[in-house]
Specification:
The protein is an alpha/beta fold and about 700 residues long. Among the domains are: about 240 residues, Beta Barrel (Catalase HpII,  Chain A, domain 1); about 150 residues, Rossmann fold (3-Layer(aba) Sandwich), CATH 3.40.50.880. About 25% of the residues lie in helices and about 15% in strands. The protein contains 18 helices and 18 strands. Strand 11, helix 14 and strand 12 form a beta-alpha-beta unit. Helix 3 packs across helix 12, helix 4 runs parallel beside helix 10 and helix 16 crosses helix 17. The longest helix is centred in the middle third of the chain and has 18 residues. The radius of gyration is 29 Å and the shape is globular. It binds CIS-heme D hydroxychlorin gamma-spirolactone. The site of CIS-heme D hydroxychlorin gamma-spirolactone has 26 residues, from strand 2, strand 3, strand 4 and helix 9.
Length: about 700
């Protein structure tokens, strides 16, 4: 359908708002395409040539401008967290905490503070799949009335390393190897495990990354953590320590590894699509912001150093106090302008919040500002709308690449003596009352390259995490470590890791050793500090103990085929939607299938493109002939056998037994597989789906 004339294929209805008031094309009617200089374009299909079959002319300023701009469309991707997805929202404080902090954001109950949140994976590049086993970034920019506060956290409350000087090594080791340029978006390789096992401070975080936390079902179903200990400061200048938590109102949920592998093939955009769709449908995800507050006394008596980012403070020791809620309610208008250009910086804090001496945080405070210069090309990235504060900004910084908001007047320094009688504007002045003040913590000591002694405990909380998991979750951790180490070629690296595991949990070490086919357990790794083995399990650390209480926000896939009972399909749809879930119809053809009522129901997906791995639960409703017909169809068989293997709830109309027979599960049907007759069957099934998985099916580990 090549259009000969731009008029035939004209799509350029949009005019670009280049920062000012909405404007019309300088060159003519609203929809006339122009160059970046505003000159109307007559032909956007043909470059200027010496002759219809002759060479191109250098003179063609219109083509040159277009190609020039295209050539420069990309900016460097983030060196870590390159793949991410950003969403607008707002934060609303529910409980003021003036006794702890004088920050406006913590004192103005009911005020809606705009936010922008970017979720990300760490290791993969921009085009890598969403459901890689990885930490998820959870970074929120609060546009507060006192300036921007960036809470740049992860979905895991601890980190791999204790000192920022090790960050480049950590990231080099996990990213593709420099000689071969692979593997992409994976930690299952020699370099990563070599570094990790030579750096025992990674052990606690490794437990989290090998757990299902690292393969979330949705960005909506995961927690967020500020990781470091920060300070809150009140109007009297008093300080308490704080750790920040995001608790999803949607409950926690992850996928299982075999599912993740398949999802990445079927839908590499699984997480971003899920977020876009939920917000587009008005199903706005919410997180409560919680704080764990403690004082010097607690810090001095805690078994670990509160400045050590590889340690957490169990919620049983210091409860999380919920103070407000963030709602994500708007997708971006333009991915590049917002998600790509957003620049988070840990050093962006507001009066009433302060840093601590956590050596990882101190290093981050340098790195983030520095990296924005490289990525966004100059010091004026705060002029880009997504980064610009939504409160007054007044200073004497000036010029630089792409300066957008330029001061007026003569004074560009201070102190100055303009103002007063001169009639000139003297510009802004510092304000000792409202201005940012650091906590006046007394500091003394020797300048040294050392870590504090308690940083040497590498195993105690790793063990605590492991023993806090349900049996199913523990199995997943064992399987994940076994999987990853099976991809490690050098035997001594595998042995080193099992040697570390022996300091964490004997059974875990044995299971992994067996999984790797080791004849005997490798020697224990020497611990810098003897691990504490009697830390109590903490329920807050398990996903399965913190799941949702309904099927809301989840997705049911209904596979229909010719002759399927129309009433059943309808009742399933209604029950799922009533529960706040979404439904996708899958059929042998995207054109849908004619159901028992003689009407054709359109499909959202053809079976090959709608596998069961992308749904939380599935149903199959087909006529007898169709069920027999599709019993031998491979995608249909995978739909059923995967759903069954992944412990999903499955509903079916009795004709579908032919397919169950074909995949060999007809003799194994359990309470997680529901035959739909009529009456309340659909509703009972959806109620059951609220448990998300029928874990009993896979609870017994096969040797
Ligand atoms: Fe980092 C990005 C989270 C340690 C250096 N980091 C980045 C992002 C998140 C985190 C969520 C993506 C922000 C976005 O969406 O744009 N990083 C963390 C957490 C850490 C951490 C929770 C440990 C507690 N990071 C860390 C260290 C350093 C960095 C120790 C360097 C010394 N991180 C960066 C960076 C990035 C970044 C290079 C890349 C892109 C960016 O900053 O804007 O500066």
């Amino acid at each position: 359908m090549a259009a000969k004339s731009p008029k035939l294929d004209a799509s350029p209805k949009t005019t670009l708002d280049q920062g000012g008031a909405p404007h019309q094309s300088a060159a003519g009617p609203d929809d006339t395409m122009t160059t970046a200089q505003g000159v109307a374009i007559a032909d956007d299909q043909n470059s200027l040539k010496a002759h219809a079959r002759g060479p191109g002319l250098l003179e063609d300023q219109i083509m040159r401008e277009k190609i020039f701009h295209f050539d420069h469309e990309r900016i460097p991707e983030r060196v870590v967290h390159a793949r991410g997805y950003g969403v607008h929202g707002h934060f609303e404080l529910k409980e003021a905490i003036p006794e702890l902090s004088h920050a406006a954001i913590f004192n103005r109950v009911g005020e809606k503070v705009p936010t922008f949140t970017r979720f990300s994976t760490v290791a993969g590049s921009k085009g890598s799949p969403d459901v890689a086993r990885d930490v998820r970034g959870f970074a929120t920019k609060f546009y507060t009335s006192e300036g921007n506060w960036d809470l740049v956290g992860n979905n895991i409350p601890v980190f791999f390393i204790q000192d920022a000087i090790k960050f480049p090594d950590l990231i080099h080791s996990v990213k593709p190897a420099p000689d071969r340029g692979f593997p992409q978006a994976q930690s299952a390789h020699d370099n990563f495990w070599d570094f990790a096992t030579l750096s025992p401070e990674t052990m606690h975080m490794l437990m989290w990354v090998m757990s299902d936390r690292a393969i979330p079902r949705s960005l909506r179903f995961m927690e967020g953590f500020g990781v470091h200990t920060f300070r809150l400061i009140n109007a009297e200048g008093e300080s308490k320590f704080v750790k920040f938590h995001w608790k999803p109102k949607q409950g926690l949920q992850s996928v299982i590894w075999n599912e993740a592998l398949k999802i990445n093939g079927m839908d590499p955009d699984f997480h971003r699509r899920d977020m876009w769709d939920a917000i587009d449908a008005g199903d706005f995800p919410q997180w409560d912001l919680g704080i764990q507050v403690f004082d010097d006394d607690f810090a001095d008596n805690f078994a670990f150093d509160i400045l050590d980012p590889t340690k957490l403070i169990p919620e049983e020791d210091v409860p999380v106090r919920i103070i407000g809620t963030m709602t994500l309610d708007a997708n971006v208008d333009n991915f590049f302008a917002e998600t790509e250009q957003v620049a988070f910086c840990t050093q962006n804090i507001v009066p009433g919040i302060d840093f601590t001496n956590d050596p990882l945080l101190q290093g981050r405070n340098f790195s983030y500002l520095d990296t924005q210069l490289k990525r966004l090309g100059g010091p004026n990235f705060t002029h880009i709308p997504i980064n610009a504060p939504k409160c007054p900004v007044r200073h004497f910084q000036q010029d630089g690449h792409m300066a957008m908001t330029n001061p007026k007047g003569r004074a560009n320094y201070e102190p100055n003596s303009w103002g007063g009688d001169t009639g000139e504007d003297a510009g802004p002045r510092e304000n000792p009352e409202t201005g940012f003040k650091s906590y006046d913590e007394p500091i003394e000591g020797k300048k040294q390259r050392v870590r504090s002694e308690l940083f040497g405990d590498h195993y105690s909380q790793a063990r605590q995490f492991y023993i806090s998991q349900t049996e199913i979750e523990q199995t997943h951790v064992q399987d994940a470590i076994t999987f990853e180490l099976s991809k490690v070629e050098r035997l001594e690296i595998r042995e080193r890791m099992v040697g570390h595991l022996r300091n964490i949990d004997g059974d875990l070490a044995q299971q992994v050793a067996d999984g790797l086919g080791m004849d005997k357990l490798p020697a224990k790794q020497k611990a810098v500090r003897e691990p504490i083995t009697d830390l109590k399990p903490s329920d807050a650390l398990s996903i399965l103990k913190n799941g949702p209480d309904s099927f809301a926000g989840r997705k049911l896939g209904i596979y229909i085929a010719e002759g399927g009972d129309a009433r059943l399909v309808k009742s399933l749809k209604t029950a799922a939607e009533d529960a706040g879930a979404t439904v996708a119809i899958i059929a042998p053809h995207v054109g849908g299938a004619k159901l028992s009522d003689g009407k054709t129901m359109q499909a959202d997906e053809k079976i090959d493109g709608g596998p069961s791995v992308v749904f939380d639960a599935v149903a199959l409703v087909m006529g007898e002939k169709a069920a027999k017909n599709y019993a031998d169809d491979k995608p249909t068989q995978d739909f059923v056998s995967d759903a069954f293997a992944h412990a999903k709830f499955i509903a079916y109309s009795e004709e579908v037994m032919a397919i169950f027979k074909a995949v060999g599960i007809d003799g194994k049907l359990d309470k997680g597989v529901a035959k739909l007759g009529g009456g309340d069957d659909a509703k009972s099934f959806i109620d059951q789906c609220g448990e998300l998985r029928f874990w009993d099916r896979v609870a017994v580990k096969q040797d």
